[in-house]
């Protein structure tokens, strides 16, 4: 187990809210530690997000292309769940704005 990269091992996040200025970390569930698998998912998710952004795809558009819910794709990109191996942006043309 290693320190959570999101909360730096504190187990909590400080947010800008008067009612709840400190909340449990969503990545480590307030434990302050994560295992190697979750860290791997976080790194893989970061790569997915970078590729999606490079193609100028929103979460919603990318999720629709991969026949999944936007929330699932978001959770993959931040490392909360294991990224699917079938997600690829290599064959998708960049969307022009």
Main pleated sheet = 2 strands, antiparallel
Multimerization state: single chain
- The pLDDT mean sits at 85
Overall geometry: globular
Instruction: Please report the total strand number as a whole number.
Output: 4
CATH architecture of the largest domain: Orthogonal Bundle
The name CATH uses for the topology of the largest domain is 434 Repressor (Amino-terminal Domain)
Poorly predicted parts: none
**Rounded radius of gyration (Å):** 15 Å
In whole angstroms, the N-to-C terminal distance is 43 Å
Strand fraction = 5-15%
Helix content: 25-40%
How many domains is the backbone divided into? 2
The CATH class label of the largest domain is Mainly Alpha
Provide the succession of SSEs.
Answer: EEEEHHH
Instruction: Trace the largest sheet across and list its strands.
Output: 1-4
For this entry, give a set of tags:
97 residues; 2 domains; 434 Repressor (Amino-terminal Domain); globular; 36% helix; alpha+beta; single chain
Could you explain the architecture of this structure?
- The chain is α+β, with helices and mostly antiparallel strands and about 100 residues long.
- The protein has two domains: about 1-35, no CATH class; about 35-95, 434 Repressor (Amino-terminal Domain) (Orthogonal Bundle).
- About 35% of the residues lie in helices and about 10% in strands.
- It has helices at about 35-55, 60-65, 70-80; strands at about 1-5, 10-15, 20-25, 35.
- The strands form two sheets. Strands 1-4 form a two-stranded antiparallel sheet. A two-stranded antiparallel sheet has the order 2-3.
- It is globular and about 40 Å long.
- The N and C termini lie far apart (about 45 Å).
């Amino acid at each position: 187990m290693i320190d959570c990269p999101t909360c730096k091992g504190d187990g909590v996040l400080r947010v800008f809210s008067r009612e709840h200025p400190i909340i449990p970390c969503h990545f480590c569930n307030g434990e302050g530690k994560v295992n190697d698998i979750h860290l791997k998912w976080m790194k893989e998710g970061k790569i997915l997000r970078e590729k999606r952004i490079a193609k100028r795809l929103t979460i919603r558009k990318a999720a629709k292309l991969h026949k999944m819910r936007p929330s699932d794709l978001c959770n993959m990109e931040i490392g909360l769940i294991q990224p699917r191996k079938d997600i690829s942006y290599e064959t998708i043309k960049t969307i022009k704005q």
